[in-house]
Write a sequence for this structure.
């Protein structure tokens, strides 16, 4: 149950922040946001605030922000349609009723002659007295059809009506907010757990190792190797790994007292290469540093950003196979294992996943945010947008291929973890 809760919280937070980026920049650009959804599939819970419906959906495999103009949601009234209109005090239509299911007093019935609900916002038609009337439609009017109400979206409030920089930032903001979330997660770890100092302090000396035989003990601080100052653990590791079989003079501090040891690193195979080791383990000391926590958050975000790109490059060049990929099942099982090491390890895992989600979404693949951004770049180069039908077909094919990949990856996860 703890794993289920951890998975829901982590996955929900990643999706929420991703969609929050889209949502905030869409609102900033003046785009009408029809729905902010966490999850996919059937709706579990829905609350309407202002002009946006906020929903939680059954399948925890993503989310979306549905903006006016993206889903071909324009409403067209054809000549001959019979409709009902509710007017406000200015004589403008505040509600357009296409199929009357409710009884409204003072409703105006019209047979449509001509209408524009996108730009000019008017409906011209014949009333019950066969008189031709021209009714202005309010910008915030509601269209009711079969009892379902939809807020009218004037063209200037649709996604496509906005200039290229606003559309680009609205789409880019999703992955960008995943990077921001990772930064805050790693910063919170630094504030709560402390910022690693990376001092070359020996946390544990293994039995029968060269370090133990020379007299080194837990808690020793290495200050010099072969007369060279050592200030970080990485410097210590580099000196030892490059000196297999060569005696090294170590200077350490123990309870404030300087000591000297001569240790010869043994040859060991690590990550398919032979290196020198002396048999010591490391756990970085930490210190509470408020401002240092922000620097730590930035360093960890940049580190994982580079690391995921490196692994992605290995996948592209064939150094990894598709079996190395994981879907929701694999992420769930890994979350189960990571949770055993404590809340801070779980938080680090969430930060890494957030960066991974941001990078994956920025890949220039159809149906992903990166694919849409690619079309915006093409629009900037061509000086005009790509035909919507052609772009839609590319995204449709991309969605099908991504769903096929998801099925394959999920099946591999099920085989790996359960069979």
């Amino acid at each position: 149950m703890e794993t289920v809760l951890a998975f829901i919280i982590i996955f929900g937070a990643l999706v929420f922040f991703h969609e929050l980026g889209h949502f905030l920049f869409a609102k900033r650009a003046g785009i009408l946001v029809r729905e902010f959804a966490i999850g996919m599939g059937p709706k579990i819970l829905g609350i309407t605030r202002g002009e946006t419906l906020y929903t939680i959906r059954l399948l925890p495999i993503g989310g979306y922000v549905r903006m006016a103009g993206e889903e071909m949601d324009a409403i067209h009234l054809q000549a001959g349609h019979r409709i009902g209109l509710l007017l406000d005090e200015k004589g403008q239509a505040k509600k357009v009723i296409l199929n009357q299911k409710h009884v409204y007093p003072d409703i105006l019935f019209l047979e449509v002659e001509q209408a524009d609900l996108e730009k000019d916002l008017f409906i011209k038609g014949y009333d019950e007295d066969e008189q031709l009337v021209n009714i202005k439609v309010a910008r915030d009017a509601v269209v009711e059809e079969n009892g379902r109400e939809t807020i009218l979206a004037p063209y200037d409030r649709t996604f496509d009506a906005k200039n290229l920089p606003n559309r680009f930032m609205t789409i880019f903001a999703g992955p960008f907010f995943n990077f921001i979330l990772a930064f805050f997660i790693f910063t919170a770890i630094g504030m709560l757990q402390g910022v690693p100092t990376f001092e070359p302090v020996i946390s544990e000396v293994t039995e029968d190792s060269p370090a133990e035989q020379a007299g080194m003990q837990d808690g020793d601080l290495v200050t010099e190797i072969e007369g060279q100052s050592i200030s970080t653990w990485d410097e210590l590791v580099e000196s030892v790994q490059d000196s297999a079989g060569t005696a090294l003079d170590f200077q350490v501090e123990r309870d404030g007292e300087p000591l000297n040891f001569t240790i010869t690193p043994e040859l060991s195979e690590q990550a398919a290469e032979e290196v020198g080791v002396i048999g010591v383990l490391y756990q970085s000391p930490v210190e509470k540093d408020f401002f240092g926590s922000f620097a730590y958050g930035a360093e960890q975000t940049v580190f994982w950003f580079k690391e995921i790109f490196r692994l992605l490059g290995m996948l592209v060049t064939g150094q990894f196979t598709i079996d190395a990929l994981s879907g929701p099942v694999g992420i769930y099982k890994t979350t189960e294992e990571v949770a055993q090491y404590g809340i801070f390890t779980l938080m680090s895992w969430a930060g890494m996943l957030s960066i991974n989600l941001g990078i994956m979404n920025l890949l220039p693949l159809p149906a992903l945010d990166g694919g849409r951004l690619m079309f915006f770049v093409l629009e900037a180069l061509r000086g005009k947008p790509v035909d919507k039908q052609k772009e839609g077909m590319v995204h449709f094919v991309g969605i099908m291929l991504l769903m096929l990949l998801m099925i394959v990856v999920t099946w591999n996860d099920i085989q790996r973890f359960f069979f």
Notes: The first strand starts at residue 33 and ends at 49. The radius of gyration is 31 Å. The CA atoms of residues 139 and 154 lie 7 Å apart. Residues 81-152 form one domain.
